[in-house]
Each structure stands twice: as structure tokens, then as C-alpha cells.
Amino acid sequence: MRRPTLAIRWFAMSLALALLAGCATPGTTPDDGRSADQWQAQQERLEALDTWILIGKAGLRTSRETTSANLDWSQHPHYYRMLISGPFGSGRNLLEGREGRFTLTNAEGRFEASSPESLMQQQLGWSLPVSSLSDWIRGLPADHSDYRLERDERGFPQQLEQDGWQIVYRDWAQVESLWLPRRLSMEYDDLSVTLVVTEWRPAIDD
Prior knowledge:
Elements: H1 6-15, H2 38-48, E1 52-61, E2 66-76, E3 79-85, E4 93-98, E5 101-106, E6 109-113, H3 116-124, H4 133-136, E7 147-151, E8 157-162, E9 165-175, E10 178-188, E11 191-202
Family: Belongs to the LolB family.
InterPro entries: LolA/LolB/LppX (IPR029046), OM_lipoprot_LolB (IPR004565)
Keywords: Cell outer membrane, Chaperone, Lipoprotein, Membrane, Palmitate, Protein transport, Signal, Transport
């Protein structure tokens, strides 16, 4: 695997995140208010959640450097859009996926491929599991591969291992009637990504 380059770093940000009608800003008390039965009670609704806006900040650390970026992620059943902006790259990097077509647009041009992973491999020389992000950001394992999941004392996800990545859920926020991850860290080899969600806007169907 090639070491992350300047062009790769923004993509790691989108991973760390990828993003998510209602608007809420996460906030937690010292014990964050969660109870032991809440995760199981919301499971079905959480799995059905497929539309949201997520705004946050992502931090990237490698063996060579540390940097950060802003993330604006819009997710819909058949389309997603991740806008990455910050001190790395040219300032604006856009990843879009729609019905089997995926594009990456930055200062170097616009690129297209049949999957986000192959797009990254072709343009950057390596790939990240972009297809898993919409599950991981909801606290769920992706359904396409084996995984190992540990839960905390309240039954909420605490650590998830899948596709060589280790995801640790460090903080939660109650957004309307759902508990959603507010802060998580993800590691793969020497790449470490931390995502802090400053605004969750899930489209919740009650």
C-alpha cells in the first residue's frame, strides 16, 4: 500500500467520515443520558435511515503528519455527495455517487469509475472502503463482509472491526428520537482518522 499523499489525505477525511429534515446540534451530559434498552429499541428505525445531512470536522494522522478538514455530507437513497474543504489539497474536493456511477472532482479534474473504491485505486493508487461509511456512521456494520463488534455496558456499539479497519465509538448524541454517533475514530495500518460531528440532520420517519 502506498503511503498517503497530499491528494489522498482529503479522501481519508471523507472516509472518516464520510455523513445524514430536522436539525439538531449534538450535545451530551457527563453520562450522556443513554440507557441500556435504547439501542435495541431504535435498531429497526436506525437500519431504515437512508437520508441525512452531516456536518463535521475530520482529523487525519499518519506517521508523517497531522492535518484536518471540514466535511459536508449529503446522503440520499440513490445519491450521495461529500464536500471536503480544508487546509489540504486545493481547498475543495467533491465525491459523488449515483446509481452505480461515482465521480471525484478536484483541482486536477473530474474522474469517474464504476465504484468509489476502484475510482480511488485508479486515481490515487490505493482504496478505502467508501461503501461501508453509510453504515459505520450510523453505528452499524456493513452487510457485505464479516465483522467483530463489541458493545458497551448500555448495549451501544463500542468497537467495530471490519475490512481491516478498527472503528471506536467515543461519543453519542440524541438527535430528535435517535441516538447517533457524535465522535468516532478509525484506524487502518498507520492511518488514523477522527470524525467529530457538529451537526446531524437525519430525515426521520416516525
